Amino acid sequence: MGVPSKERTRFRHFLKELVREGLLHPAKGRGFRLDRESTDQDQWAVEGVVRRHRAGYGFLAVEAPERDESEGDLFLPAREMRDIFDGDRVRAVPVPGRYGRLAGRVLRILERARPSVTGIYEKMGMREQVIPDPSLFGEPIELLPGAVEPRPGETVEVEIRRYPEGRSPAVGRIVEILGAPGELGTILETVIRRHGLRRRFPDDVLEEAAMLPAAVSDADRQGRVDLRETPTFTIDGEDARDFDDAVSVRRLDDGYALQVSIADVAHYVRRGSPLDVEAFERGTSAYFPDRVIPMLPERLSNGIASLVPGEDRLTLTAEMEFDREGHRRRTRISESVIRSWGRWTYTGVARVLEGEPAEGISEHGEHVRRMHELMTRLRARRQERGSLDFDLPEPDIVLDATGSPEQILRSERNDAHRIIEEFMIAANEAVADWFVENKRPTIFRVHAPPELMKIRAFVEFARAYGHFPDFGALASSKAIAEFLREIRGMPAERALNHLLLRSMMRAQYSEENTGHYGLASPRYLHFTSPIRRDPDLVVHRLAKALLHREPEPLDRASLQRIARQSTEKETAAAKCEYDVLDVIRAHFLSDKIGEEFEGIVSGVTEDGFFVELLDVYVEGMVRVQDLRDDWYRFLEESRTLIGKKSKRRFAIGEPVRVRVQAVHVALGRVEFALVRGGGRPKGKH
Fold it and tell me: Domain residues of the chain, as ranges?
């Protein structure tokens, strides 16, 4: 059972105690047995969702509130995975595994997660089958006759008609041909389907969307605050098509008034309707370089709910008054009707702030400057209280006419982005406070403090680079924010930002307010994007009920279910977006085998180190097994690889030159060979 020798005496006493309690019984020889009549396996069983690995084994993410996170997931060996698809919910009993860790024995499958999978079509004589993507399922799927006739070797999507049971294999029908293996389009389609994102709207959803009006009627305007004469503008990226927020700022004698108007999607998406059910199932829109998988049909998201210029649109408006220093002193929430005065872009607003002309924006230059003034005050107040701002770049992928990546750049944020960011944060906080002040339930956006062990590990890492953060016993966000400001502009800033960000917990949705650590906000929610996020839509529905003094439309159990679903769908969409980006970046380098690039070490593990290229925003790995000049050991506390004889080291932030050695596009993986780089250790290791 993998019990270390020094623990065996204690373990024997533990076994004897179980015998005395009647939970174990001596078996023939030197073993023990469970008494099946008195001990039901189910009382030890746990439930959770299974994640498959391409190698055939899997892990069970246990759903148990009382379970200690440090226990980790249950390992499921390949023999337990034969009938299980990625994402299936199962019931399993923990059993001793190899190397002293717990494994799981599957008792039964509770819920199937995937109605379809992708794979390679094969035909051998009269026999047809699909070999699934190994990260989704591990056994061939037999085929029923269908209208779709692929060629052998093509990637297809197969709808499961009968799931495997015992010795009976899975049976399915091909519903779509995705293309030839190795083509970028085929790989991207496969990745999106791997994550289970819903791509087609059901007929009843499309029918309901088709019945929506094309324009706002006089009846719709009744009872709303009329803001159509107020100068209100949308600010988005050049490629944006759905505009769900518009902003307006005016100066007061002793401060500023900010209006944030958000599309009243709840007016068109009635609770329990097909549109509402679909929004719940999708949870969020997913954004990719070449497409968007929207939460709501285009008729709604790009039509009657989109705040297009010159058209009347129904909105919910949060009007906030701030003093000259940016402290909020008053909030008013109302149902409103607006007419956007202009569709501004981040680039255009940034040009005006720099004193350059921008069509459609320059004539409102005074309004832009008012927005900037208020933004700087709100940002200062947020940073003052300890809000974290990592300000890391995002990839900006430029596609050519065929959909292939032409350039991969770093997309840096400017003050135009920060204007919208600060205004949206202000509105979300104001609406959260409004719910709490009125003692009404809602769905909060919460963010827990980082685990103490992760912070301690980060402190050790920072010290290895000559920085000595003093976060205190509780590692307050204010202390961390001050440290981030201290290292701004220093050589190790990027590395420390990345590692500290990885130490943070993920934000999630909850019916209980526990505060938002990253924003240093006692109350926070998502109110500003109901076109693309279901929790925002639900918050709007709850807000409208409060405005009309109606009973609470959703009980605590319903809010809890929506919050959990929203968190899960957001996580799935984010993972899919990251995987798609990895595939596109790998494809960009696939025709550059042998070419050399300058880069910096962005991460180090015992298997090697990651390199982020400087000319293009792509990351790949130099494997330690390819470093032939020495034997390298991994120093956990400083995240460093160091040569045993040469003392050559590879640490985060080190400049290197690498050559593209191998590219695995389908896996989104790039391998580099080291050309030069690696320095001498600084200080004692």
Answer: 5-111, 116-181, 204-432, 452-504, 590-677
